[in-house]
Amino acid sequence: MNMTFSCAYPLIQTLSMPMGVQAEGGLISEELPAGQGTYQIRMIPYHDAQFTSPYDGQVQVEVNQQMYVAVDVEGVDRNQIATVLDNCWATPVNDSDYHIRWNLIMRECQNPDDGTVEVLQNGNGTTSYFSFRMFTFSGISDRIFLHCQVHLCLVQNGRCALSCDPGYRRRRRRSLDFYHSAANHHGSLRKLSNPDK
C-alpha cells in the first residue's frame, strides 16, 4: 500500500535563553511541530579550533582572541537532517532584538565586513561551526551575547550547504526546503582585562 502525505511546519520560531554561559553550553529543547518528539539545540563555546576543549564555567576571552563556537542539534536523525546557521550576531545586552548589534553570519555566510569571521561548517551535518575574534561594544559593555537563527534542513533535498564564495549571489530557498527554524541565544562572553596589553 502506498500513501501520499505532506507536512506543514512553521518557518520561524524564536527561543530565548535567560541565563549566562554554562560549562557545556546553552541548551534549548523544542517540540517538533508535528508533536512527534523533541530535539535540542546547543551553542557551545570552545577554546580551540579542533573543538575538543569547551569553556568550563564563565567564558572570559581577551579582545582579538579567536573564539570558536559549535551549534549542535540532538534528537534528530543525523542521516536526514542538517543544521544550518542562517544568521548569527552579537549584542551588548541579553536581548536578541537590541538595536545595537554586530552581524557575524548573514544569510548563511560570514559577514563580509568582518574579516575575522570564519564559517567552518554549515549545513554538512547536525553540528555547524564558526569562529570570530573577540570584540566589545566600545563604551557600552565588556560583554557580548551571542545569538543564532538556525534551521533544520532535509538532507535529501541536497541544498543544505551552499557556497559562500565572494560575489556568489545566494538564491532564496523555497519554504519546502525548511524543516523547522528556531533561534538560539547564548549567554555572555566577557572581555578579560589585561594590564600588560
UniProtKB/TrEMBL annotation:
Keywords (A to Z) from UniProt: Disulfide bond, Signal
The keyword Disulfide bond is assigned to this record: yes
Segments forming a coiled coil: none
Top-rank taxon, per record: Eukaryota
Keyword Disulfide bond appears in the UniProt entry: yes
ZP domain residues: 1-167
InterPro entries the record matches: ZP-C, ZP_dom
Protein name stated in the entry: Pancreatic secretory granule membrane major glycoprotein GP2-like
Organism expressing this protein natively: Cyprinus carpio
